Amino acid sequence: MELPLRPEIRGLAPYGAPQLDVPVLLNVNENPYAPPAVVVEALAAAVHKAAEGLNRYPDREFVGLRAELAAYLARESGADFLRFENIWAANGSNEVMLHLHQAFGGPGRTTLSFAPTYSMYPEYARDTSTTYVTLPRRDDFSIPVEEASAEIAASQPSLVLLASPNNPTGTALPLNDVRALCDAAAAVDGGCVVVVDEAYAEFRRKGVPSALMLLPEIPHLAVSRTMSKAFAFAGGRLGYLAASVDIIDALRIVRLPYHLSTVTQAIARAALAHVSDLQAQVDEIRAERDETVAWLRAQGYTVADTDANFALFGPFEDREKVFAGLLELGVLIRVVGPDGWLRVSIGTPQEMARFRAALLEVTR
Ligand SMILES: *Cc1c(COP(=O)(O)O)cnc(C)c1O
Question: Which of 15, 26, 27, 197 to mutate to test the pocket of ligand 1 (most atoms within 8 A of CB)?
């Protein structure tokens, strides 16, 4: 039987990192620490309470959750100017990004990003029939801002996606660069929304600012966050975005009705009430990250400077072989980024010890 598949998806397989049953999982940048017992209790109680009202549709505007996310951002980054009207949320920041494309992308429109970057960006564009254009980053994975501004003028995108810290490189973007790119975007005919994807923000090194602080001065800027990484809540599926009310109101138009289930709202709020328990190991992960980078460099590898909970390292003549060797020893990492590089997520000290031992064995 012939299916009337859209030409853009003909012959494609679903995208996703391999989900393998392996002792040491260092491939999708999860927080390696499961929620502690006190949080598990609170989540279970929240689900119990939510279950009593599941005959009703969820709160479509989820004002309570949005207000608590705003309060969290005020505490985390000093962004105390945010109100619930400035916050949007969905089932992972992946869905938030899709909403952005549904509202601001579409046929005849362009999304611009800077490669190498998050492998989902071209998928949001494809799924909304938006043209996806990339400009290469510099060798140190920073963004060549002048060239980028010229590209914005040339390709007139309606969306510019800036991951900071970037995945898979870990590179954080200086606020002056964000500002300059927003200036270039302001000159686009018909408007352009600049999205800074801060999925890894909580892991940034001391002194590295968040683009949230630019929101009051830049109405066409949006900053996306997620509970998947620092919150140890990847399975909870809660991503969110801070932006001007005009941007949020556009996303409210394209969302499916009741897209955030009562259960999701309830567990996200319970998790936010226990943020210090959930993020208890973030400092430890940052320290482990810095030690991992130092160790890899001491072994002679090149490692990209990283403000995230992973490190991109290389070069390897045959990275697939190193990846397979590690997997055989029970350590799953990720083949991603430019040819010759590998990415390892930061796990517990025990997991990183196994990673180091395995890498030494595989490359001996
Ligand atoms: C992990 C990650 C996300 C998070 O996606 P969720 O849908 O919130 O789990 C977003 N952006 C980047 C760049 C990521 O690496």
Answer: 197
Cβ partners under 8 Å of residue 91, min gap 6 = 237, 238, 239, 259, 260, 264
Degrees, nearest 5: CA angle 206-336-149: 65
Tell me the β-bridge partners of 310: 345
Question: In angstroms, what CA-CA distances link 170 with 29, 141, 200, 360?
Answer: 11, 9, 9, 23
Q: Each residue of 256-302: pLDDT tens digit?
A: 999 999 999 999 999 999 999 999 999 999 999 999 999 999 999 99
| Domain assignments of the chain as residue spans, ordered by start | 7-33+281-363, 39-277
Is 265 close to ligand 1, i.e. is its CB under 6 Å away?
no
Task: Tell me the C-alpha distance between 66 and 73, whole Å.
Answer: 11
Question: Which residue's alpha carbon is nearest to atom 7 within ligand 1?
Answer: 92
Instruction: Determine whether the shortest distance from the Cβ of 238 to ligand 1 is under 6 A.
Output: no
> Alpha-carbon Rg of the chain, whole angstroms?
21
Q: Which residue has the tokens 């890498």?
A: 359
CATH 3.90.1150.10 fits 7-33+281-363, yes or no: yes
**What pairing do the DSSP bridges indicate for beta strands 24-25 and 331-332?**
parallel
Write out pLDDT tens, residues 161-177.
Answer: 999 999 999 999 999 99
Query: What contacts 8, CB < 8 A, 6 or more positions away?
Result: 126, 129
Domain 39-277 has CATH 3.40.640.10: yes
Alpha-carbon distance 289 to 139, whole Å? 21
Q: Which pLDDT score is estimated for 18?
A: 85
> Side-chain half-sphere of 26: how many Cα atoms within 13 Å?
33
Strands of 310-314's sheet in order across: 302-303, 310-314, 342-345
